[in-house]
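Following the same procedure, backbone shapes were mapped to integers, yielding the entry below.
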Amino acid sequence: MSHGTLAETLSPPRAEAHPERAEAILDLARSAFVEKGFDGASMQDLARAAGMSVGNFYRYFPSKAALVEALIARDLAEVESAFLAITTSADPLAALKGALAERLTRNCEEDAPLWAEIMASAARKPDIADLLRRMEEGVQARIVRVLGLVAALPEDEAARRFGAHVRIVFMLVRGAALDRPAGQAADPDLNALILRTIDRLLDDVLAGAEEG
């Protein structure tokens, strides 16, 4: 029986009904991704890492795409919490720049290679590509929201004025994280250059908004 057929014949996923158990399974399955790679880890490998039968594993996560979706949902929850702190701070722009600087210097030795593989897989798998696109759009929308708050603009106008600049900021931060070789610390000179570039981009676009 193929995996797809097995997934279709089982009852609906139980991740929503048992979020704590699903979270624990996700952490264990992630270790198999890190060890074997996103494409190299089979569903059997993931189930084995979680200490479950394949059939029971499918009830929580019926596909790799479902696992990626859960990883993205968890990351976006953390992003939402971070951006709530930014938007409620006394200086949202400074808080945003500080969060971007922290993201650049964060130790992501395990996560970066995994996400690099997931992004490579997205070039071949439309469902993974769609999940990543939604994640990227979610992060970028939150940065736009902060800039709109600083410039006192509604979100639709902020998106029109700042959207392209925010995409560049996102690409700079993401590229720095994913390009870092495994086991290698962040390059402080490169990070300083990226942060100066981001500062200039944000300051310029906000100055333009004030003039407009």
Q: What stands out?
A: The chain has ten helices and no strands.
